[in-house]
Each structure stands twice: as structure tokens, then as C-alpha cells.
Amino acid sequence: MISTEDSIIRLIIALILGGLIGYERQAQSKSAGLRTHTLVCVGSCLCMIISINIAMDYYFTFGYNNSDPERIAAQVVSGVGFIGAGTILANQKDRSVRGLTTAAGLWAVSAIGLVVGAGYLTIACVATALIFLVLTVFVRLDARLEGRFHKKYVMHLVMKNNIGQARKLSTFIHDHHMHIKTFHSHNDDDAPLADIDIELKAAHHMDETEIISQLLAMKGIKQATFHVDDGSQGQENYGH
Known about the structure:
Blueprint: H1 4-27, H2 34-62, H3 70-88, H4 100-118, H5 121-136, H6 138-149, E1 151-160, H7 163-175, E2 178-185, E3 193-202, H8 208-217, E4 221-228, E5 237-238
Antiparallel strand pairs: 1-3, 1-4, 2-3, 4-5
């Protein structure tokens, strides 16, 4: 069995390691920050400790081990998925898709907690350092690669606010081999017109004038702008 003293030490280590990752996420103003990551890591560690101790209790009490120490710990991996989903859906009010990195970080932090609870402290520390490296250094590399292989575009539209119109727009974007990075709506769901901003990326140069012309030719689109994301404001174009 894991002694009380050893269990406390492991929980404290889990608190520190989870806190390091959570601090970085908090500094980036992410939806899941210091407290969330720390709680996930400590909770995962506790689940692993309890799993091991229950299995050992069965062994010493009954002389055989009919308990699988992996069962409780295994549920952490699936259970943390609900928290991760919450970080992705946290911005649904303004219809923006964000939080995938934070969700992956929470999943990784839960794994760190399990590793600490199992007593593999060196592995846990190395894993924490690597995750921290990914979150702090790789973000710059990611931005450079994104700028090298993809062009960023900004699309602003005022269009009819209905499912059919949204599907037409989605098909249009897909047919032009563009991918949505963020999607923001500035109006209520029951408004007659949707005022939206979309950040897109494309692997090749897009003819901005042609894209605007095609957008305005679509029924239901009242206004449209489309330009490279260089911080400038594109010229507003009006449809019918």
C-alpha cells in the first residue's frame, strides 16, 4: 500500500506540476486556468492512489487480488473529456471555436496526475517540462509555420439569419478550399440578419475581388468584405 505520508507527498507534487501548466494557461487568459488544471492533476493523482490502495487492501485482506487498480484510474481519461469539452464550448455565446489546446492540456495534466499517483515522479516532471515547452515555445513556431504555409483572411458578412444561408456559406468556404479559424456572430439568434466576422486560412492566394463578387451574387447576402488579415479594413461591398 501507499503510505499516508507518501500519498501526501504525491498529492503535493501533483498540485505543483498541475499548477505550473495552469499558470501558463491563466497567463494566456484561457477559460481553464490555474485552479482547473491544478484540480484535475490532484484529482487524477488521488484516483490513482485510491486505485492502488484498494487493490492492495483486497490482496492483504482476502489473500488474492480481485480488484483491478486500473479501473478507477481509467475513468479519469474519459471523465476529463467532459471538462475538455467545456473549454471548447465555453465561447459558444459568441459562436467562436476555441480552446482545443487548453482541452488537450487538461487531458495531458490528468495523465500527469495519474503518473504521479503511480509513483513515477521523474517521468511526471519530465512530461510537465515538455508540455510547458509546447505551450510556451511551440506557439511561436506554430505561428511561423502558419504564416509560411497558409494565408490568413478576414471575411465580414451581413446576411439572412437562417440555417439554409449558413449551409450555403459553409459550402462556399469549403468549395474554395478555405478553413475557418474563428467565427463570431454579433447578433442574437432570432435576429433577421446575421452580422458575422470569420477568420479563414487558405493554402494559396485568393482573388479577393472575385470572392467578394461571388459572395454578393449569393441570395441572402447583403454586405461582404474579404481581405488578407494584415490589420487593415477591407472595403465594404453591398449586395441586393
